[in-house]
Amino acid sequence: MTDVSNDGERSLAQAAAVLSDTQGLIDRALAALRSKTLEGDRVSPAKLDGYQLVSYELSLCWAECSAASFLLAHAGHLEQEMPNAAGFTTRLATLFCAEAVTNSAARLRARPTDFGLSEVDISAVTSGDNGAAFLAAQLAAGNIAGIGQ
User: Fold this and answer.
1) Tens digit of each residue's pLDDT (9 = 90 or more) over 6-25
2) In angstroms, rounded to a whole number, what is the distance separating the alpha carbons of residues 36 and 19?
3) Distance, CA of 48 to CA of 96 (rounded, Å)
């Protein structure tokens, strides 16, 4: 018999690892944006204005990944406190995380050099050993259909 709690905790750990890698890309992109918009030791609003699309896309990535992080933490608490009742929340949290990672990667891939990244950087997260397997499992139609059953 499979220990559902261990499966949930394992899924949450995989999600957290892939999300952390994605947040690392976002942090690098934010650092690149900062370096392009500094004037002295302060960000210049005039320079930042030239990077409106980059700023907008990064804000979406950051917000979505932050929400995924909070949802994973909530599911983790449920796994610890009420493992028999946490399954639905855990599955929803890991799916949301996979979608946040996929959406962020798509935004970053649209113009990687504007974000100070390369396709190799982004693919390391989404196509690496951990990312590819996690994303494929979570985004599979069967997994999504199974969440509501």
Assistant:
1) 688 999 999 999 999 999 99
2) 26
3) 31
Distance CA(46)–CA(36), nearest Å, equals 11
**Looking at domain 4-147, which of 1.20.140, 3.40.109, 1.10.357, 3.30.310 is its CATH number?**
1.20.140
Q: Closest Cα to residue 9, out of 65, 91, 100, 127?
A: 91
Do the beta carbons of residue 97 and residue 126 sit within 8 Å?
no
pLDDT tens-digit readout, 38-88: 999 899 999 999 999 999 999 999 999 999 999 999 999 999 999 888 899
Q: The whole model's pTM is what?
A: 0.91
Instruction: Give the CA dihedral 97, 11, 121, 25, nearest 10 degrees.
Output: 50
Distance (Å, whole) CA 25 – CA 101: 11
